[in-house]
Amino acid sequence: MRVVHVGSEVFPFSRSGGLGDVLAALPAVQARQGADVAVVSPWYASLVGAPQVVWEGDVPDAGPVTVGELREGGVRFLFVGLRAFERPGLYHDDDVERFCAFGRAVLPVLDALEITPDVLHGHDWQAGLVVAHANLRGWRTAYTIHNLQYQGRWTLHEAWGWTGLPDWAMQAEGVEFHGDLNLMKAGLWFARHVTTVSPTYALEITTPRYGEGLDGLLVSLARQGRLSGILNGLDQARWDPRTDPEIQPYKNALGKAVNTAALRGEFGLDAAPILGVVSRLADQKGMDLLLMALPDLVREWNVVVLGGGDPLLTAALTGWGHHPRVAFVPGLNEPLAHRVYAGADAFAMPSRFEPCGLSQMIAMRYGTLPVVRETGGLVDTVPHEVGFRFADATPEALTAACAEARTVYKKRAVWKSRVKRGMELDFSWESPARHYLELYARL
User: Quick one: which residues bind ADP-alpha-D-glucose (predicted)?
Assistant: First the structure.
Protein backbone atom coordinates (compact mmCIF):
# COMPACT_ATOMS: atom_id res chain seq x y z
CA MET A 1 0.00 0.00 0.00
CA ARG A 2 1.53 3.31 -1.11
CA VAL A 3 0.35 6.11 1.17
CA VAL A 4 1.14 9.82 1.06
CA HIS A 5 0.20 11.92 4.07
CA VAL A 6 -0.02 15.70 3.59
CA GLY A 7 -0.04 18.14 6.50
CA SER A 8 1.27 21.48 7.67
CA GLU A 9 3.66 20.21 10.35
CA VAL A 10 5.46 17.07 11.49
CA PHE A 11 7.44 16.49 14.69
CA PRO A 12 10.39 16.89 15.22
CA PHE A 13 10.99 18.92 12.06
CA SER A 14 8.13 21.39 12.57
CA ARG A 15 5.51 21.40 15.30
CA SER A 16 3.07 23.69 17.06
CA GLY A 17 0.63 21.12 18.41
CA GLY A 18 -0.91 17.68 18.20
CA LEU A 19 -1.07 17.55 14.39
CA GLY A 20 2.73 17.44 14.24
CA ASP A 21 2.76 14.55 16.70
CA VAL A 22 0.23 12.59 14.65
CA LEU A 23 2.15 13.03 11.40
CA ALA A 24 5.27 11.74 13.13
CA ALA A 25 3.77 8.70 14.84
CA LEU A 26 1.03 7.40 12.52
CA PRO A 27 3.20 7.12 9.35
CA ALA A 28 6.00 5.41 11.28
CA VAL A 29 3.65 2.73 12.63
CA GLN A 30 2.05 2.26 9.21
CA ALA A 31 5.53 1.74 7.75
CA ARG A 32 6.21 -0.93 10.39
CA GLN A 33 2.91 -2.56 9.40
CA GLY A 34 4.12 -2.90 5.82
CA ALA A 35 2.94 0.25 4.03
CA ASP A 36 5.16 2.37 1.76
CA VAL A 37 4.68 5.77 3.43
CA ALA A 38 5.69 9.33 2.59
CA VAL A 39 4.81 12.57 4.39
CA VAL A 40 4.66 15.89 2.53
CA SER A 41 4.92 19.12 4.49
CA PRO A 42 6.19 22.69 3.92
CA TRP A 43 9.90 23.45 4.11
CA TYR A 44 9.79 26.24 6.68
CA ALA A 45 12.70 28.59 7.27
CA SER A 46 12.65 27.35 10.87
CA LEU A 47 12.61 23.65 9.92
CA VAL A 48 14.62 21.48 12.29
CA GLY A 49 17.05 19.34 10.30
CA ALA A 50 18.85 19.59 6.96
CA PRO A 51 16.89 17.90 4.15
CA GLN A 52 18.76 16.74 1.06
CA VAL A 53 17.54 18.57 -2.04
CA VAL A 54 15.98 16.03 -4.41
CA TRP A 55 14.20 18.29 -6.91
CA GLU A 56 14.03 21.91 -8.01
CA GLY A 57 11.70 23.42 -10.57
CA ASP A 58 8.86 25.82 -11.31
CA VAL A 59 5.22 25.01 -10.67
CA PRO A 60 2.59 27.11 -12.46
CA ASP A 61 0.90 29.55 -10.05
CA ALA A 62 3.10 28.34 -7.17
CA GLY A 63 6.47 29.65 -8.37
CA PRO A 64 9.94 28.22 -7.82
CA VAL A 65 9.89 25.04 -5.75
CA THR A 66 12.70 23.24 -3.93
CA VAL A 67 12.00 19.80 -2.48
CA GLY A 68 14.07 18.34 0.34
CA GLU A 69 14.00 14.83 1.72
CA LEU A 70 14.78 13.14 5.03
CA ARG A 71 14.21 9.48 5.85
CA GLU A 72 13.48 8.37 9.37
CA GLY A 73 11.76 5.35 10.89
CA GLY A 74 11.04 3.83 7.49
CA VAL A 75 9.18 6.98 6.36
CA ARG A 76 10.12 9.31 3.51
CA PHE A 77 9.63 12.94 4.61
CA LEU A 78 9.37 15.43 1.73
CA PHE A 79 9.55 19.16 2.41
CA VAL A 80 8.17 21.55 -0.20
CA GLY A 81 10.07 24.83 -0.23
CA LEU A 82 8.21 27.89 -1.55
CA ARG A 83 8.83 31.62 -1.23
CA ALA A 84 5.73 31.78 0.97
CA PHE A 85 7.50 29.70 3.64
CA GLU A 86 10.79 31.58 3.78
CA ARG A 87 9.74 33.67 6.82
CA PRO A 88 10.47 32.50 10.36
CA GLY A 89 7.72 30.60 12.11
CA LEU A 90 5.07 28.20 10.89
CA TYR A 91 1.85 30.20 10.69
CA HIS A 92 1.01 33.78 9.70
CA ASP A 93 -1.96 36.00 8.88
CA ASP A 94 -1.78 35.20 5.14
CA ASP A 95 -1.85 31.43 5.63
CA VAL A 96 -4.79 30.85 3.27
CA GLU A 97 -2.77 32.25 0.37
CA ARG A 98 0.38 30.42 1.50
CA PHE A 99 -1.33 27.04 1.76
CA CYS A 100 -3.10 27.56 -1.55
CA ALA A 101 0.37 27.83 -3.08
CA PHE A 102 1.35 24.68 -1.18
CA GLY A 103 -1.85 22.99 -2.38
CA ARG A 104 -1.00 23.82 -5.99
CA ALA A 105 2.57 22.53 -5.63
CA VAL A 106 2.15 19.13 -3.95
CA LEU A 107 0.83 17.05 -6.88
CA PRO A 108 3.39 18.41 -9.39
CA VAL A 109 6.10 17.58 -6.83
CA LEU A 110 4.81 14.02 -6.50
CA ASP A 111 4.73 13.78 -10.31
CA ALA A 112 8.32 15.00 -10.57
CA LEU A 113 9.43 12.39 -8.01
CA GLU A 114 7.36 9.70 -9.77
CA ILE A 115 5.22 9.05 -6.69
CA THR A 116 1.66 7.92 -7.37
CA PRO A 117 0.01 6.88 -4.10
CA ASP A 118 -2.73 4.32 -3.72
CA VAL A 119 -4.24 6.74 -1.21
CA LEU A 120 -3.47 10.39 -0.51
CA HIS A 121 -4.37 11.29 3.07
CA GLY A 122 -4.75 15.01 3.86
CA HIS A 123 -4.81 16.46 7.35
CA ASP A 124 -6.72 19.58 8.43
CA TRP A 125 -7.55 22.66 6.38
CA GLN A 126 -4.00 23.30 5.20
CA ALA A 127 -4.23 20.11 3.09
CA GLY A 128 -7.80 20.65 1.89
CA LEU A 129 -6.79 22.02 -1.52
CA VAL A 130 -4.36 19.11 -2.07
CA VAL A 131 -7.20 16.65 -1.47
CA ALA A 132 -9.44 18.57 -3.89
CA HIS A 133 -6.87 18.47 -6.70
CA ALA A 134 -6.09 14.81 -6.02
CA ASN A 135 -9.77 13.92 -6.21
CA LEU A 136 -10.12 15.78 -9.53
CA ARG A 137 -7.36 13.51 -10.87
CA GLY A 138 -9.32 10.47 -9.78
CA TRP A 139 -6.97 9.59 -6.92
CA ARG A 140 -8.32 7.85 -3.84
CA THR A 141 -8.34 10.35 -0.98
CA ALA A 142 -8.88 10.35 2.76
CA TYR A 143 -9.16 13.52 4.82
CA THR A 144 -8.85 13.92 8.57
CA ILE A 145 -10.33 16.73 10.66
CA HIS A 146 -8.06 17.38 13.60
CA ASN A 147 -9.93 20.51 14.71
CA LEU A 148 -13.02 21.73 12.84
CA GLN A 149 -12.81 25.19 14.39
CA TYR A 150 -9.89 26.16 12.14
CA GLN A 151 -11.11 26.16 8.54
CA GLY A 152 -8.84 28.30 6.34
CA ARG A 153 -11.32 30.95 5.18
CA TRP A 154 -10.72 33.97 2.93
CA THR A 155 -12.94 36.24 0.84
CA LEU A 156 -13.86 34.17 -2.21
CA HIS A 157 -13.53 36.87 -4.87
CA GLU A 158 -9.95 37.54 -3.73
CA ALA A 159 -8.91 33.94 -3.07
CA TRP A 160 -10.48 32.07 -5.96
CA GLY A 161 -7.58 32.66 -8.30
CA TRP A 162 -5.23 31.09 -5.76
CA THR A 163 -6.92 27.68 -5.89
CA GLY A 164 -6.69 26.44 -9.49
CA LEU A 165 -10.06 24.74 -9.04
CA PRO A 166 -12.69 24.62 -11.81
CA ASP A 167 -15.36 27.33 -11.80
CA TRP A 168 -18.13 24.86 -10.96
CA ALA A 169 -16.57 24.34 -7.51
CA MET A 170 -17.05 28.04 -6.67
CA GLN A 171 -20.50 27.56 -5.12
CA ALA A 172 -22.20 26.21 -2.00
CA GLU A 173 -22.19 22.77 -3.66
CA GLY A 174 -18.41 23.02 -3.56
CA VAL A 175 -15.92 25.12 -1.60
CA GLU A 176 -17.88 28.37 -1.11
CA PHE A 177 -18.93 29.11 2.47
CA HIS A 178 -20.91 32.28 3.24
CA GLY A 179 -19.06 34.25 0.60
CA ASP A 180 -15.67 32.84 1.53
CA LEU A 181 -13.30 30.24 0.20
CA ASN A 182 -13.18 27.50 2.86
CA LEU A 183 -10.25 25.09 2.54
CA MET A 184 -11.60 22.77 5.26
CA LYS A 185 -14.79 22.47 3.23
CA ALA A 186 -12.70 21.74 0.12
CA GLY A 187 -11.25 18.70 1.88
CA LEU A 188 -14.65 17.57 3.16
CA TRP A 189 -16.37 18.06 -0.17
CA PHE A 190 -13.83 16.32 -2.37
CA ALA A 191 -12.47 13.52 -0.16
CA ARG A 192 -13.75 10.00 -0.73
CA HIS A 193 -13.81 9.44 3.03
CA VAL A 194 -13.53 11.81 5.99
CA THR A 195 -12.30 10.83 9.41
CA THR A 196 -11.84 12.69 12.61
CA VAL A 197 -9.72 11.85 15.59
CA SER A 198 -12.20 10.23 17.96
CA PRO A 199 -15.55 8.44 17.58
CA THR A 200 -17.36 10.84 19.94
CA TYR A 201 -16.10 13.93 18.09
CA ALA A 202 -17.31 12.36 14.81
CA LEU A 203 -20.81 12.32 16.30
CA GLU A 204 -20.55 15.75 17.90
CA ILE A 205 -19.58 17.58 14.70
CA THR A 206 -22.82 16.52 13.01
CA THR A 207 -24.67 18.82 15.46
CA PRO A 208 -25.04 22.62 15.28
CA ARG A 209 -23.29 22.97 18.66
CA TYR A 210 -20.01 21.48 17.46
CA GLY A 211 -20.34 21.56 13.67
CA GLU A 212 -18.86 25.07 13.21
CA GLY A 213 -21.36 25.81 10.44
CA LEU A 214 -20.45 22.66 8.49
CA ASP A 215 -22.77 20.27 10.34
CA GLY A 216 -25.16 20.01 7.37
CA LEU A 217 -22.39 18.74 5.08
CA LEU A 218 -21.08 16.45 7.81
CA VAL A 219 -24.55 14.97 8.41
CA SER A 220 -24.72 14.24 4.68
CA LEU A 221 -21.30 12.54 4.75
CA ALA A 222 -22.34 10.47 7.78
CA ARG A 223 -25.52 9.32 6.04
CA GLN A 224 -23.45 8.25 3.04
CA GLY A 225 -21.10 6.26 5.27
CA ARG A 226 -18.25 8.64 4.42
CA LEU A 227 -17.57 9.98 7.92
CA SER A 228 -16.02 8.04 10.80
CA GLY A 229 -13.95 8.56 13.92
CA ILE A 230 -10.62 6.83 14.51
CA LEU A 231 -9.08 7.60 17.87
CA ASN A 232 -5.57 9.05 17.81
CA GLY A 233 -2.81 7.09 19.44
CA LEU A 234 0.09 8.21 21.59
CA ASP A 235 3.78 7.90 20.83
CA GLN A 236 4.47 5.60 23.77
CA ALA A 237 8.20 5.54 23.17
CA ARG A 238 8.44 9.32 23.51
CA TRP A 239 6.02 9.39 26.45
CA ASP A 240 7.24 6.56 28.67
CA PRO A 241 7.84 7.23 32.38
CA ARG A 242 10.16 4.21 32.55
CA THR A 243 12.68 5.71 30.11
CA ASP A 244 11.90 9.46 29.98
CA PRO A 245 15.22 11.35 30.20
CA GLU A 246 13.49 14.54 31.42
CA ILE A 247 12.37 12.98 34.72
CA GLN A 248 13.38 10.44 37.34
CA PRO A 249 12.20 7.29 35.52
CA TYR A 250 9.64 5.13 37.31
CA LYS A 251 7.37 2.12 36.83
CA ASN A 252 4.75 2.67 39.51
CA ALA A 253 3.23 5.12 41.98
CA LEU A 254 6.14 4.72 44.39
CA GLY A 255 8.62 5.97 41.80
CA LYS A 256 6.25 8.75 40.79
CA ALA A 257 6.45 10.22 44.30
CA VAL A 258 10.07 11.24 43.68
CA ASN A 259 8.96 13.34 40.70
CA THR A 260 6.12 14.88 42.67
CA ALA A 261 8.56 15.95 45.34
CA ALA A 262 10.88 17.39 42.68
CA LEU A 263 8.08 19.42 41.07
CA ARG A 264 7.00 20.64 44.49
CA GLY A 265 10.54 21.78 45.20
CA GLU A 266 10.99 23.37 41.76
CA PHE A 267 8.11 25.78 42.38
CA GLY A 268 8.22 26.05 46.17
CA LEU A 269 4.82 24.45 46.67
CA ASP A 270 3.42 23.25 49.98
CA ALA A 271 2.24 19.75 50.92
CA ALA A 272 -1.15 19.95 49.16
CA PRO A 273 -1.59 17.72 46.08
CA ILE A 274 -0.64 19.16 42.71
CA LEU A 275 -3.09 19.81 39.89
CA GLY A 276 -1.21 20.12 36.59
CA VAL A 277 -2.18 21.83 33.32
CA VAL A 278 -0.24 21.69 30.04
CA SER A 279 -2.32 23.41 27.41
CA ARG A 280 -2.83 26.04 24.78
CA LEU A 281 -4.34 29.02 26.53
CA ALA A 282 -7.61 29.22 24.64
CA ASP A 283 -11.34 29.26 25.35
CA GLN A 284 -11.61 25.91 23.52
CA LYS A 285 -9.40 24.42 26.23
CA GLY A 286 -11.57 25.92 28.97
CA MET A 287 -8.71 27.96 30.38
CA ASP A 288 -11.11 30.78 31.26
CA LEU A 289 -13.07 28.22 33.33
CA LEU A 290 -9.85 27.26 35.09
CA LEU A 291 -9.16 30.92 35.89
CA MET A 292 -12.62 31.41 37.34
CA ALA A 293 -12.26 28.24 39.40
CA LEU A 294 -8.78 29.08 40.75
CA PRO A 295 -9.97 30.84 43.95
CA ASP A 296 -11.73 27.62 44.96
CA LEU A 297 -9.10 25.23 43.63
CA VAL A 298 -6.20 26.72 45.58
CA ARG A 299 -7.95 25.97 48.86
CA GLU A 300 -7.09 22.29 48.41
CA TRP A 301 -4.64 22.11 45.47
CA ASN A 302 -1.39 23.48 44.28
CA VAL A 303 -1.89 24.41 40.61
CA VAL A 304 0.93 24.30 38.04
CA VAL A 305 0.08 25.69 34.59
CA LEU A 306 2.30 25.54 31.50
CA GLY A 307 1.04 27.04 28.27
CA GLY A 308 0.87 29.91 25.83
CA GLY A 309 -1.70 31.48 23.57
CA ASP A 310 -4.38 34.05 24.30
CA PRO A 311 -2.72 37.25 25.64
CA LEU A 312 -5.62 38.00 27.98
CA LEU A 313 -5.51 34.53 29.52
CA THR A 314 -1.72 34.78 29.76
CA ALA A 315 -1.97 38.11 31.57
CA ALA A 316 -4.65 36.82 33.94
CA LEU A 317 -2.60 33.74 34.87
CA THR A 318 0.51 35.86 35.28
CA GLY A 319 -1.45 37.88 37.83
CA TRP A 320 -1.71 34.77 39.98
CA GLY A 321 2.08 34.50 40.16
CA HIS A 322 2.14 35.95 43.67
CA HIS A 323 0.01 33.13 45.09
CA PRO A 324 2.04 30.49 46.96
CA ARG A 325 -0.07 27.66 45.53
CA VAL A 326 -0.01 28.76 41.86
CA ALA A 327 2.88 28.38 39.43
CA PHE A 328 2.45 29.63 35.86
CA VAL A 329 5.07 29.26 33.15
CA PRO A 330 4.08 30.90 29.83
CA GLY A 331 4.94 29.42 26.44
CA LEU A 332 6.14 26.04 25.23
CA ASN A 333 8.65 24.15 27.34
CA GLU A 334 8.98 20.48 26.42
CA PRO A 335 11.21 19.39 29.34
CA LEU A 336 8.93 21.13 31.84
CA ALA A 337 5.87 19.50 30.25
CA HIS A 338 7.40 16.09 31.02
CA ARG A 339 8.07 17.15 34.61
CA VAL A 340 4.49 18.35 35.08
CA TYR A 341 3.01 15.13 33.70
CA ALA A 342 5.29 13.09 35.96
CA GLY A 343 5.05 15.25 39.07
CA ALA A 344 1.40 16.32 39.23
CA ASP A 345 -1.11 14.20 41.11
CA ALA A 346 -4.06 15.17 38.90
CA PHE A 347 -4.38 16.87 35.52
CA ALA A 348 -7.12 19.32 34.49
CA MET A 349 -8.63 19.47 30.97
CA PRO A 350 -11.87 21.50 31.16
CA SER A 351 -12.21 21.66 27.36
CA ARG A 352 -15.34 23.08 25.75
CA PHE A 353 -14.64 20.65 22.93
CA GLU A 354 -11.74 18.26 22.37
CA PRO A 355 -11.41 16.40 19.05
CA CYS A 356 -9.12 13.84 20.66
CA GLY A 357 -6.56 15.24 23.07
CA LEU A 358 -3.18 13.74 23.89
CA SER A 359 -2.56 15.32 27.28
CA GLN A 360 -5.05 13.11 29.11
CA MET A 361 -3.42 10.01 27.60
CA ILE A 362 0.04 11.19 28.61
CA ALA A 363 -1.19 12.05 32.10
CA MET A 364 -2.64 8.58 32.70
CA ARG A 365 0.49 6.91 31.32
CA TYR A 366 2.46 8.91 33.89
CA GLY A 367 0.09 7.99 36.73
CA THR A 368 -1.55 11.41 36.87
CA LEU A 369 -5.34 11.20 37.08
CA PRO A 370 -7.21 13.44 34.62
CA VAL A 371 -10.10 15.72 35.54
CA VAL A 372 -11.88 16.25 32.22
CA ARG A 373 -15.03 17.58 30.69
CA GLU A 374 -17.17 14.93 28.98
CA THR A 375 -16.58 15.80 25.34
CA GLY A 376 -14.93 14.37 22.23
CA GLY A 377 -11.88 12.21 22.73
CA LEU A 378 -11.93 12.80 26.48
CA VAL A 379 -15.04 10.60 26.65
CA ASP A 380 -13.35 7.93 24.55
CA THR A 381 -10.10 7.78 26.53
CA VAL A 382 -10.78 8.55 30.21
CA PRO A 383 -12.57 5.65 31.98
CA HIS A 384 -14.72 6.47 34.99
CA GLU A 385 -12.67 4.06 37.09
CA VAL A 386 -9.52 6.09 36.37
CA GLY A 387 -10.29 9.78 35.93
CA PHE A 388 -12.94 12.28 36.98
CA ARG A 389 -15.43 13.56 34.40
CA PHE A 390 -17.91 16.44 34.48
CA ALA A 391 -20.62 17.45 32.02
CA ASP A 392 -21.06 21.22 32.11
CA ALA A 393 -18.54 23.75 30.80
CA THR A 394 -18.69 25.86 33.96
CA PRO A 395 -16.18 26.73 36.69
CA GLU A 396 -18.58 25.23 39.23
CA ALA A 397 -18.59 21.85 37.47
CA LEU A 398 -14.79 21.89 37.22
CA THR A 399 -14.49 22.77 40.90
CA ALA A 400 -16.89 19.97 41.88
CA ALA A 401 -14.93 17.39 39.87
CA CYS A 402 -11.66 18.54 41.43
CA ALA A 403 -13.30 18.31 44.86
CA GLU A 404 -14.31 14.73 44.07
CA ALA A 405 -10.72 14.00 43.04
CA ARG A 406 -9.46 15.58 46.28
CA THR A 407 -11.80 13.35 48.30
CA VAL A 408 -10.59 10.22 46.53
CA TYR A 409 -6.97 11.39 46.90
CA LYS A 410 -7.37 11.08 50.68
CA LYS A 411 -8.26 7.40 50.22
CA ARG A 412 -4.74 6.43 49.29
CA ALA A 413 -5.43 2.79 48.38
CA VAL A 414 -8.29 3.79 46.06
CA TRP A 415 -6.19 6.54 44.48
CA LYS A 416 -3.26 4.19 43.87
CA SER A 417 -5.55 1.61 42.26
CA ARG A 418 -6.79 4.29 39.85
CA VAL A 419 -3.21 5.29 39.10
CA LYS A 420 -2.31 1.66 38.38
CA ARG A 421 -5.27 1.22 36.01
CA GLY A 422 -4.40 4.40 34.15
CA MET A 423 -0.76 3.44 33.71
CA GLU A 424 -1.80 0.08 32.24
CA LEU A 425 -4.06 1.50 29.50
CA ASP A 426 -2.88 0.93 25.93
CA PHE A 427 -2.89 4.10 23.83
CA SER A 428 -0.39 2.92 21.24
CA TRP A 429 -0.76 3.74 17.54
CA GLU A 430 -0.86 0.06 16.50
CA SER A 431 -4.64 -0.28 16.44
CA PRO A 432 -5.44 3.17 14.93
CA ALA A 433 -2.80 2.65 12.22
CA ARG A 434 -4.40 -0.68 11.28
CA HIS A 435 -7.84 0.95 11.15
CA TYR A 436 -6.49 3.56 8.71
CA LEU A 437 -4.89 0.90 6.53
CA GLU A 438 -8.20 -1.00 6.48
CA LEU A 439 -9.95 2.23 5.45
CA TYR A 440 -7.42 2.76 2.65
CA ALA A 441 -8.00 -0.80 1.44
CA ARG A 442 -11.76 -0.14 1.25
CA LEU A 443 -11.10 3.02 -0.75
Answer: 15
Per residue in 7-30, pLDDT tens?
999 999 998 878 999 999 999 999
Contact 408, 418 (CB under 8 A): yes
CATH topology of domain 2-233+430-442: Rossmann fold (3.40.50)
Domains 2-233+430-442 and 253-424 share a fold: yes
Cite the annotated binding site by residue number.
15
Say how far apart CA 116 and CA 114 lie, in whole Å.
6
Q: What is the side-by-side strand order in the sheet with 193-196?
A: 52-59, 63-72, 75-81, 36-42, 2-6, 119-123, 141-145, 193-196, 227-229
The closest of 430, 303, 440 to 26, measured between CA atoms, is 430
Q: pLDDT digits over 285-314, tens only? A: 999 999 999 999 999 999 999 999 999 999
Closest residue by Cα to residue 10 from 80, 61, 59, 64: 80
Between CA 24 and CA 28, with CA 26 as vertex, the angle to 5 degrees is: 70
Which pTM does this prediction carry?
A: 0.94
For domain 253-424, give the CATH number: 3.40.50.2000
First to last CA, the chain: 12
